[in-house]
């Protein structure tokens, strides 16, 4: 019957019938009341009859109105709300699915019209997106090349605004600027490097009138104390009366260089000290003329010679240990080194067989290839060696052993020494085989092998077996140049949603009742800036709850007791997470649940989680209406966010889903007129019956001011 009404009758006719039914029903209720009241007149009198008639008519009309209201609420009000939410989602978020018109099937042509509008809007947006994509492909390619170039620059590159907030950084910079949390966009570089040298260098550049002026700066890490050599340059010259510009800072870790320099200086001091005194004493003995005439003089001479020999031997050993530290080395697979040598000598018509164990070598591969190729050429041309072979294996003393073998005459030490003194063609002047050996703090020697083969041995100290796939090095650079021109509002309530720094997080726990002893077993978080996720800026850690994880909980989040046995406790993980979320708005789905677990451990962590909070449950209620279902699954389904089944109910999986939902809801909130944090908080507090707002009443207040240099 309802479906027949929905398809056969127009919306205007159905609305008319509703009101006609209300009128007819009201009249009917009055007539029924009068009839029943008239029957009671003879028994109770005319007054009681009128009262009874009025009550019957009133309750009848009330029931009829309630029934009509229920029908309107179910088929009109809720339907319009769902239709509006779907239209808003497709207008402001990237949702490609067609609008579902089934909930609004009783609204006549409204649902098909809305579907047509959203479909046309989607087609227009897609066409526009394709046009923009075509026009920006060249820029995107150039941008990717620039990012790759800057990411692999062998120095940390950081672009900072005038208030020292990070706007751009490459992968090397993130490695250098480390602490509780690695460098991130909109974080202050003064949190990672000691401020005084940077402030002084920036002040000097601001006073300069040279557009090409640069300032060298030596600073230290605030956390580790590592020493950085930097170079600072302004983005542009400051204009009179204008805001101070930002600056580019290149950084290089010189801690090891300074340590090596100090070690070499100490070695030189010991050379002069340990050699000067025995030499002076020896000279005294010789000047005294006692060497041939007195036994005491001979003993004194022998003692001084012995001391001098011992000092020289000790200094030589120390020098051998340190001499390879200054030369730039790379990590290379042993098999790659062997293949390079085989290819090089093959160009000279020399056949060389090679093999290598699964090892990594730290060496100057180019120079080693040149040296080994040079030795192969000399073996063939000078001593007529044949059946050459090259093998790299693990050395019994640690490191690796390079063995060059051949059939033919045994190589004499003097001949090998002569070959090592010959200059190699490596693009550098005066580089000999002996120079290469010295740079690697090693030596080479000939020896007789088995079965008529002879060998040259060359050990390498820095080598190790390949036990696992090496970690992938992130090459991308991260930036948001809009931060250069962003003016701080000073008050969080007035901050636009798109300028908020948000940390979206989720926890997995042993149960649902923190007051009964349930604990956190995993925390994951992502940073969002400008309404977009920042690549690479994420946090994830298992937590040892110091109590068993129930099997029922493990079935949900797949975290086992074995996985957390060696994990840090909440005191350590909570402190790191607090540093990661510094100066950010915390975002979670059902935030009061996660925050209650964290706030119970504030004493152990040594920090308070009093951050401003956004809850995607309440944001969903603002966008889609309180009558909708607001679980994470329902929200992501409405927004077209796909959560892989294996990622659901994992801390990082739910965090990614929540972050994606937040990104899509920000433009929808703006479309409803909620553009600032304060406006959104006012809106979500209207849905307090659905879920308690995790912000304290005074949370929307002034926050961190960014100082201007």
From TrEMBL:
Annotated EC: 2.7.7.7
Signal sequence region: none
Enzyme class: transferase
Domain PAS: 144-210
Chain segments annotated as transmembrane: 15-38, 50-72
This protein's UniProt keywords: Exonuclease, Hydrolase, Membrane, Nuclease, Transmembrane, Transmembrane helix
Catalytic activity: DNA(n) + a 2'-deoxyribonucleoside 5'-triphosphate = DNA(n+1) + diphosphate
GO molecular function (one): exonuclease activity
NCBIfam families xrefs: dnaq (TIGR00573)
Stated role: DNA polymerase III is a complex, multichain enzyme responsible for most of the replicative synthesis in bacteria. The epsilon subunit contain the editing function and is a proofreading 3'-5' exonuclease.
Protein name: DNA-directed DNA polymerase
Species for this entry: Tropicimonas aquimaris
Phylogenetic classification of the source organism: Bacteria, Pseudomonadati, Pseudomonadota, Alphaproteobacteria, Rhodobacterales
